[in-house]
Sequence to fold (124 residues):
Amino acid sequence: QVQLVESGGGLVQAGGSLILSCAASGRTFSSYGMGWFRQAPGKEREFVATISWSGSTTYYAESVKGRFTISRDNTKNTVALQMNSLKPEDTAVYYCAATRTKMALTTRRNYDYWGQGTQVTVSS
Fold:
């Protein structure tokens, strides 16, 4: 089993930046593909970004492409989401997830482990 803990959320002004981090424990981190999802109140949880086990493949939701960057450091068992040019519509709880397939996947049902989430609020 894998445990995931997100950190780095907070309140920022529109146009600002945040870096979210996800720390993993349990089975070796490099064995899993990783993803970020987000959920706003009253909305479905949606895909944000994903990265393969090696870091060689990434995919992004169209709404964040060019603004967000996902990365991983397998020596530290962490995955990060750099968020730039934040907009009020980015406000949500952001969740880190891991998939045993090792691939970069965009659908939440493909993920086996989930963190508790971290709140990101972007004010106008």
DSSP finds no helices and eleven strands in the chain. The mean pLDDT is 95. The first strand starts at residue 2 and ends at 7.
